[in-house]
Predict the 3D structure of the following.
Amino acid sequence: MTIRNGYEVSSEGAVRHWVFLYARLENATPTETQPFAVLSLLPGTQITGTVLTIDATATLIVGDVTHSMVYLHGVRNVRTYNGGNEATWGVISEGDPIYYDRSATMPANTYLSTSPADSAAGANALFGYAVRQFDADTSLPTTTATASTELLGVMQLGA
């Protein structure tokens, strides 16, 4: 086997922190440690990540948009909406897709769900995937198929 030596390789992925304007975010009042999505011309295609810091003037955030970074987030287990309201729910299992949910009906400080469409039938952006926080984590799969918000590890898609 030949090992190429014309480039550098690393077992560590590049960490990507980026500055975004509040005015360009889906949530105009972001909070540190919460998920965010940048507005896009085509709903469902947003850059997504996790808010790291907010500047003193409350006009900029630094967001982590690192691919495969894992954060602990609240995830709503809603699967579908009907007439603007949650209609079905389900158990969240390891590897399930997690979306940045733009629905106005989401509980306070909850921005992620398992629904690919929001309450107005618009596309939600894929945020990442449900994962275990550590080897002994027993939070996945979740145990309820009724309406709930679960705190679990999410491996973000990033940029």
Remarks:
- The CA atoms of residues 22 and 58 lie 8 Å apart.
- The longest strand covers residues 149-156.
- The mean pLDDT is 88.
